[in-house]
Amino acid sequence: ELGSYSHNVAHELRTPLTVIRQNLELLQIKPTEKLIHSTDEEITWMEQIIETLLFLAKPKAQWLKSEIIELPHFLREILEPYKKDIHYIEPKKTLKKSLHKELLKRVIDNLVQNALKYKKDWLVEVRFTNDTLSIKNSIERNFTEKELSEVTKAFYQADTSRSSSGYWLWLALVKKIVELEWWKMTIRTIKQEFIVDITFSL
What's the rounded Cα separation, in Å, for the pair 35 and 8? Predict the structure, then answer.
């Protein structure tokens, strides 16, 4: 498992490095805004991979204490950058929970960004009801029970014909946060919809 994990980490980092090297060679010939933007995106992608891997290796003791959060207001702030691309259904009542803001933000950002990246057609839906946050997007096919049981493993790929391993890396990150905070996460696919439910403990 360690050998496989190391291989996947190397592969994930090698891909953006290859693009960056190619862009630098082309920039020496003819600098363009497109190449600069592409290079910047690849560097950001590498930073996200490294940051996620470092977080996955952190023990719980390194995290700060939770604080009381007014969830509807806090969720609205986190989802503001995505408002044009998602359909957010707010709760009808105010709910306050003792949560870690940074961890909750990481969970929502990862789930929404990946739902947007891998959606098949329609907009991503985010719904918060009672104690559960649900994020869903359309997919090409439903997953098998075996696939659903393994999608939270870092670098797992349900469809090896597509370069989508990054999706599962972020789900591994979300799973660790859920375990750290004693929340509950369920992942399901119904009618070609990929749905992640996060239920917060009282």
Answer: 26
Q: How far apart are the C-alpha atoms of 90 and 72, rounded to whole Å?
A: 7
pTM of the prediction?
Answer: 0.68
Question: CA nearest 111: which of 187, 199, 41, 171?
Answer: 171
Tokens of 85: 């691309």
Task: Count Cβ atoms below 10 Å from residue 126 Cβ, excluding itself.
Answer: 23
Q: Which residue has the tokens 């490095």?
A: 17
Cα distance between residue 167 and residue 149, in whole Å: 15
Those residues whose C-beta lies under 8 Å from the C-beta of residue 106, and which sit 6 or more positions away, are 55, 173, 174, 177
Whether the Cβ atoms of residue 167 and residue 114 lie closer than 8 Å to each other: yes
Helix (H) or strand (E) run with residue 187 in it: strand 184-189
Mean pLDDT for the stretch of residues 21-32: 89
Contact 139, 194 (CB under 8 A): yes
Sheet with 86-89, strands from edge to edge, namely: 86-89, 124-129, 132-138, 193-199, 184-189
The percentage of the chain sitting over the pLDDT mark of 70, rounded to a whole number, equals: 81
